[in-house]
Amino acid sequence: MNITSTQGDASGWRVVVVGELDVSTAAALLDELATVAAREPDVVLLDLTNASFIDSTGLRSIIEGHRLVTTAGGELFIDGVSAAAGKLLEIMGLVERFRRP
Q1: Domain boundaries, the chain
Q2: Per-residue pLDDT tens for 10-68?
């Protein structure tokens, strides 16, 4: 898995996940989201367009990352999702929770 974060503007960040988000890689995503949350962003866009697989541990890292960002005063939205990630988010009832307004 590869994770990159870029600052879009003064108050927004994009975090891009490429590859499998599973038990062996979920901690890396959570660490990255914690680093971004520490910068107190207004918005974090999580791009899962190229996430080829997500398991329950990966899903937990997304939910925990969301908590970290909202605790820091920001919002986390999913901006782009692969078929695999989209299906899991839909099954878990999380599509609306992370959808951009």
Answers
A1: 2-98
A2: 789 999 999 999 999 999 999 999 999 999 999 999 999 999 999 999 999 999 999 99
Task: Give the span between the Cα atoms of 98 and 101, in whole angstroms.
Answer: 9
Q: Which amino acid is at 17?
A: V
Per-residue pLDDT tens digits for 14-26: 999 999 999 999 9
What is the spatial distance between Cα 43 and Cα 37, in angstroms, rounded to a whole number?
Answer: 9
Nearest to 15 by CA among 69, 92, 53, 56: 69
Amino acid at 28: A
pTM of the model: 0.92
CB of 39 closer than 8 Å to CB of 15 = no
Distance between CA atoms of residues 101 and 88, nearest Å: 21
Paired tokens of 72: 């820091």
84 vs 4: CA distance, rounded Å? 20
CATH class held by domain 2-98: alpha beta
